[in-house]
Amino acid sequence: MKKKLNLELYKKLFLIRTAEEKIIEYYHEDEIKTPVHLSIGKEAIEAGICQALRDEDQLFGTYRSHGIYLARACQTDAFFAELYGKATGLLKGKGGSMHLCAPNFGLFGSSAIVGSIIPVAVGAAYANLMKNNGKLVAVFFGDGAMEEGVFWESLNIASLMKLPILFVCEDNGLAAFTPKIYRQGYNSIGKIVSQFNCTFIESDTTDAEEIYNLASCARSKIFEKQLPSFAHLRYYRYLEHVGVEEDFGAGYRSKEEFDEWRRKDPVDLQRKKLLNMGIKEDWLRKIEVGIEGQIDRSIKIAKDAAFPDSNELCEDVFYEKEKKN
Amino acid sequence: MKRKRRISYCQAINEAMRQEMKRDSNIFVFGIGVPDHKRIFGSTSGLVEEFGKERCFDTPLSEEAMTGFGLGAAINGLRPIHVHSRVDFLLLAINQLVNMVSSYRYSTAGKLKVPLVIRAIIGRGWGQTFQHSKSMHSLFAHIPGLKVVMPTTPSDAKGLLIAAIRDENPVIFIEHRWLYYVVDEVPENSYTIPLGEANILRSGKDITVVATSWMNVESLRAADILTKRHNISVEVIDPRTISPLDINLIAKSVNKTGHCIVVDNDWVPCGFSAEVASLVSELCFGRLKSAIQRIGFAFTHCPSSRPLENCFYPNAFDIVRAVERKLKLKPVDLRNETFYSYENKFKGPF
Known about the structure:
The complex is a heterodimer of chains A (325) and B (350).
Chain A: H1 2-27, H2 43-52, E1 58-62, H3 66-73, H4 77-83, E2 107-111, H5 118-131, E3 137-142, H6 149-161, E4 165-171, E5 174-175, E6 178-179, H7 189-193, E7 199-203, H8 208-225, E8 229-234, H9 255-262, H10 266-276, H11 281-304
Parallel strand pairs in A: 1-2, 1-3, 3-4, 4-8, 7-8
Antiparallel strand pairs in A: 5-6
Chain B: E1 6-8, H1 9-23, E2 27-30, H2 47-51, E3 56-57, H3 63-75, E4 79-84, H4 87-90, H5 94-101, H6 104-107, E5 117-122, H7 137-141, E6 147-149, H8 154-166, E7 171-176, E8 183-185, E9 199-202, E10 207-211, H9 214-230, E11 234-238, E12 241-243, H10 247-257, E13 260-267, H11 272-283, E14 293-297, H12 306-312, H13 316-326
Helix pairs in contact in B: 1-8, 3-5, 9-13, 10-11
């Protein structure tokens, strides 16, 4: 059981990491014409939480949500097609990297305006409560979002209305390139958030299993106590804010800090754990090769796919009865 | 013959919500003050009693988050009605409206629908000043993905609000506080008026006046005076829906009269009146006998003091004079004409 769970988690971690690395590999071709905010470094949060949620649960993300989609869908064709701006993309090429959305996999939207998706997730949670359907909403955002007024408005509303929602603060300590010390006039997120009627949990683990356990526990607690939960999860962003390069020379952070986090890299850590559990390296490698092959195929399919037709431009602005869907 | 039932604009809005909430349990109404004893000037009266606190509730003073909340509930199968007692307060939610609500369907490639209604009321008079008197329909109508409705008559208010609630898209429904007192015939049964259809409030042949919201009241009064004093027949057209706009009915009228004045309940520069003027000039170019004229608020901020406020808003007097100038008529003495004064209906405070 434990082995199976850890293997599932590893598949997700490896899928996210490899997909992101493939983007890095192909980005210079200038065919992926969309600003990418890569998930490298936070795979454990995405894999752990997505694994802990149920299929019917609903997720809301940010512009840095590749990992959420991949962990939920475990499919890569529509994902890469979207990055390549193709008609076969998740959003028919209209959204790009920053607006991944796949309601069939529970991902109900991602926003590129910091904090803006949070109240939408709160409203979705209200609808679930009204329908008493047992669905949980999880909303992801960074530490920068906590400087937006709408974050506090949303936390207040969710706590006041006792909504079934998990707030996931993916804290990398940076808003683009600006460290927290220049942005936050308080020392402890936890001290403030725990004053609201919600359950506060925090961790700086890079172990996906730990995140899984923490999220599973939070999920049951939310329904048991009928209160929202707030998970403050730290991670280290390996690459620049947007783009595919490292930027340790830029001066706003140190390479030493990276090295420290790199030693407990979420993908390596999980792989070692599986080997320690007795899983054979050959067998693991087979799984990895399978995922790599899947991604390579998806990229090839995406590159070969057609761009959207020009008459798509004004489609989907409004719902119109006479049209499709 | 049985006399038709007459109710106020406010009662018509209330009745629309009540009938719809009864029909569909997914509809709920929320906003600052919605269930308090004032009930948004009476427009939400009786709703909490009939439908309960889960479907009619007050909210924190968080306009932005509550707008996102409405969006989230709408994509998740409910049909929210969010109420603001002033349009100005809605500006706190402009990020949600412009970055999220308007583009949400597009951003899901048509996978999700956003059946969200946002009611907001334009204030005026008794010291409302510059933060309680804005209309902002031009701003909202500038954004693709938002429908903007601005009813003038009680029967339109009811039929358009029901249509807005049944629409699968975000609709901003802008009411005028002064229209709340207008009483007229309104059918008791439930009915819809399609969004995107203008209405001829008064037929005429000499000049077309396109007016929005309260300015229709002023335009109709001006039309009365012009008929009586100049024997001029004025066609008054209420677009009712700002976006999508029914320009065809307006163009048809201007092609008939050859003259067009747009009286907007808003500032003039870069506004709805400019949109109408531009479209009319495109569609009626050869038929226009004079340049299109626009009338609106003075391009300043709405002042508190009554005499200054009088100068800020155009009224029937200004419309009469504009028509006289356009049709090259000698200005008549208007001293004995009565013009609308809100003190007839209202003696503060709000």
